[in-house]
Description:
three-stranded antiparallel β-sheet; 13 strands; tt1808, chain A; Uma2; alpha+beta; Nuclease_put_TT1808; hydrolase; single chain; 322 residues
Amino acid sequence: MAQELLNSETHQFEISDEHPDGIVTALDTSHLVIEDDTPVDNFQSAQQQRLLIDPLYATRPIALPFIAEADVGLFYKLKSDPVVPDMLLSLGVKRAEDFSQRENRTYFVWQFGKVPDVCIEIVSNQEGDELSISQKPQRKGKMRSKKDIYAQVGVPYYVVFDPLQQIQGDQDMGEALLRVWTISPTGYTELTLPSGVASVGELVWLDGIGLGLTLWQGAYEEETPRLWLRWCDQKGQVILTGAEGQAAERQRADQERQRADQEHQRAEQAQQRLEQERQRAEQAQQRADQERQRAEQAQQRLEQLEALMRTQGIDLNQFPEG
């Protein structure tokens, strides 16, 4: 890659006192189209791109810095058109601060010093050239598929997701919904099984990223459940979006509040039982006191009666006991 750049005729050489030999300090990219206002394919592609990007920034399952973007040109040669992945993930890099500079607004491999780690293509029709060249590009002289380009560039992981089953031929997805390749010295080697991934919940682990990919059926941004491609952990648990994380946090807070309310109710009930026991104990004490008072009163009456009888000259000893 570096040699290709050095051999390009579009280099801009800047000679300064510090570099009298004419060291290359900038590359002339003015001839490259980096922004053409081309819209995304369709609603599903747009939603799918958000679903792949949002969780990475909201949950940060991988360490910063990284760039996760959609529909950004990947420029790998000065004299070639870019390839534009539906989604790319590049680890260990970050965007430049000044977006007013043209070279900071897209992915120039020579600017970042590396290719993206993952490029994902979301199939929406039969003309995307994800795995093979369709007739229309062939008529224009295009000879390489996106897979061929990513392999040449050396992108470590290439992912194709075909949710609408648009390219299901034997030379394409072959009845699979998801296929993943990893780079090797001879090109791409498929990580997925020969049959690919066709069922919800199956996991493909990208060891160099520390994340997996899985198919997920559910509602995203609206009530209608659909099939989506999502990042996941090694257990297959999907990485939550910001909204899902907030909803899960609210649910945990509600559950904690309910547990706290239940504990409070149990404490109140225990306090009530203690109060009832205390009241019963007081009542029992009151009854005991009343019995003692009655016994004392009876004893007093008996003593008074005995005293009265003695004043009358009655000898109490003449009465038999009992």
